[in-house]
Write a structure and sequence with these properties.
Length: about 70
């Protein structure tokens, strides 16, 4: 498992069952953490992800997600 940091859009309506979350949450990975709180309406958020090399490769293919580290 390796950790990488990404910047990605926030998805969700904020309602129960459709909470605000990073768009990369739709990809399988071991875990993801938003290191700080973000306000509703935030366009993008920084996310720390722990995943396999293959999972990181799949996430990096998404053109809306930016790899930071």
């Amino acid at each position: 498992m390796a950790k990488k940091t990404y910047r990605c859009p926030v998805i969700g309506t904020g309602s129960s069952g459709d909470e605000f979350r990073p768009s990369l949450s739709k990809y399988p990975c071991s875990s993801w953490v938003v290191p700080s709180n973000f306000n509703p309406g935030t366009a993008k958020v920084v996310v720390e992800v722990e995943a396999t090399a293959l999972q990181h490769t799949v996430i990096a293919l998404d053109t809306l997600i930016e790899v930071l580290l």
